[in-house]
Design brief:
It is a single chain. A hairpin with a 4-residue loop joins β6 and β7. α1 runs antiparallel to α2 and α2 runs antiparallel to α3. The longest helix is centred in the last third of the chain and has 43 residues. The strands form two sheets. Strands 3-2-1-5-8 form a five-stranded mixed sheet. The protein is 51% helix and 19% strand. With 326 residues, the chain is α+β, with helices and mostly antiparallel strands. Among the domains are: 96 residues, no CATH class; 124 residues, Sandwich (Immunoglobulin-like). It binds copper (II) ion.
Length: 326
């Protein structure tokens, strides 16, 4: 049975039963996580079957036969040593595979095809598509605070979840940034999540598998306040052609928006210049006007003060009347 289980768990066939609760991974890294998960379960089942077997064997074959005390085996050195060494071996093996896979999962050396800055905030996400990763920008400029260029962005709200778009076969680098509290960036189909910590930008990267085009869910996996449960996003994996068209469209839209903004800024600048010129010319006339205006304002203020005092006096009288009436 153990052999069958081991074969089922580590074989190529990956169905819902043998994944033991983990969704079908869509990244190379996710497959590694799944393998670690399945391997750990195989080890746990092996230990479990051994222990249950010994218990059942003792119950059946070593039942109480007489009133005589059976031979006592405490302080039996070989058995005591076995009890100590065996668990240490089990833990050491689990530790080895965990450490090995963690190193692999946190590796960011490979050149990425896409760079995304993930901003997690209370309570949604913003995805900034960058021209390079933060680490690369810092290295290129030889300045720790150098920021990569944002090509275009998408931000969501708790009511309108944003969509993160990825391309099949891409190595995608994620820079995680939070301006407020700790969140956790979790795409269940990656079989991976990472905390998004204010003041400490985390990073990781994945290789998206071929043939995974489709829509997946993303969540925040760290209780981060009242609307934590609404901190959702969608992940859309596109086929290369579709993605390239989408990417070009987004870039164009961002460029057009930037140009529009520039034009608006220029117009505003020109208006300001014109106003400044007007002000210089009419400064003397305005001075005369403003003095008149100031006097008018003072009079109006004095009048309203009088009104307020009258009101207060009227209210006092009313309340006195009420008291007298009681
Ligand atoms: Cu959150």
């Amino acid at each position: 049975m153990l052999a069958a289980l081991g074969l089922a768990a580590t074989g190529c066939a990956s169905n819902e039963f043998t994944r033991l609760g983990v969704p079908e991974p869509i990244t190379e890294q996710g497959q590694r996580v799944l393998a670690l998960w399945q391997g750990s379960w195989v080890a746990a089942f092996a230990v479990g079957i051994l222990v249950w077997g010994l218990i059942i064997w003792s119950i059946i074959f070593h039942r109480k036969r007489s009133e005589q005390l059976p031979p006592q085996v405490r302080y039996n050195m070989p058995i005591e040593a076995l009890y100590t060494v065996l668990p240490i071996v089990v833990i050491a093996v689990l530790f080895y595979f965990t450490a090995r896979d963690q190193t692999y999962l946190l590796e960011t050396d490979e050149q990425a095809d896409a760079n995304v800055e993930v901003v997690a905030f209370q309570w949604s996400w913003e995805f900034n598509y960058l021209d390079q990763s933060k680490a690369e920008a810092a290295e290129a400029a030889d300045d720790e605070d150098a920021e990569p260029e944002t090509l275009f962005s998408e931000a969501g709200t708790p009511d309108q979840m944003p969509t993160l778009v990825l391309r099949e076969g891409d190595v995608v680098h994620f820079d995680l940034h939070s301006p407020d509290v700790i969140h956790s960036f979790w795409i269940p189909a990656f079989a991976f999540k990472m905390d998004v910590i204010p003041g400490h930008d985390n990073e990781f990267q994945v290789k998206v598998n071929e043939g995974t085009a489709g829509t997946y869910m993303g969540r925040c996996a760290e209780l981060c306040g009242a609307d934590h449960t609404r901190m959702l996003f969608q992940v859309e994996v596109m086929e290369p052609d579709e993605y390239d068209a989408w990417f070009a469209e987004q870039e164009e839209a961002a460029e057009a928006a930037a140009l529009e903004q520039e034009a608006a800024d220029q117009e505003a600048g020109q208006e300001q210049d014109a106003e400044a010129a007007d002000q210089e010319g009419g400064a003397e006339a305005e001075d005369a006007q403003s003095q008149d205006g100031a006097e008018d304002e003072e009079e109006a203020q004095a009048a309203s003060d009088d009104d307020q005092q009258d009101d207060a006096a009227a209210r006092d009288e009313e309340s006195q009347d009420e008291e007298a009436g009681r």
